[in-house]
Amino acid sequence: MRIPSRVIGGALIVTLLTQLTACGTLFYPDRRGQIDGKIDPVVAAMDAIGILFYVIPGLIAFGIDFATGAIYYPGGRTAQVAPEKLREALSPDGKVDNLKLQAILESELGQRLPLNDPRLIQQRGSVEQLAAYQRVPAA
User: Fold this and answer.
1) Could you read off the pLDDT of 73-114 as tens digits, one per residue?
2) Signed CA dihedral, 28, 31, 32, 35: sign only
3) What residues form the membrane-spanning segments (predicted)?
4) Residues sharing a CB contact under 8 Å with residue 31, sequence separation 6 or more, in sequence order
5) Following DSSP, what letter does each residue of the chain receive, concatenated?
6) Would you kindly state where each structural domain of the chain is located, as residue ranges?
């Protein structure tokens, strides 16, 4: 009677360990803390496989991944540059020199950003933003 209980206990441990490795929280700890986003199908599939084989641990894995945000793709990254450094890229009439701006961003962020890419979306600044840089809006 002792051998079957060891086999059952070993099988239970193996199933729980395999289910825990299917959790996106363990594979992508850097994604924790996200609130929403696009669901990563790889993590969702791993959790779904867990539901197929072991219902309760699979549901727990889904719950953990949704609660921690590890099931979502990572969000966009942001960076900030001091306004004093950006002032060098502005001309006196308030227009932005893309070459100077690209050089500033490359030196500050360590990445080359293609500011001449046709997919780039440029937004106009407000009068208040120009006033913060002591610039006069161009008509």
Assistant:
1) 887 666 677 778 888 888 777 677 888 888 888 888 777 777
2) negative
3) 7-28, 48-73
4) 24, 68, 69, 70, 72, 73, 74
5) -HHHHHHHHHHHHHHHHHHHHT-HHHH-GGGTT----PBPHHHHHHHHHHHHH-HHHHHHHHHHHHHHTTTBPPPPP-----HHHHGGGB-TTS-B-HHHHHHHHHHHHSS---TT-TT----PPPHHHHHHTT-PPP-
6) 2-68, 83-132
Write the single-letter amino acid at 99: L
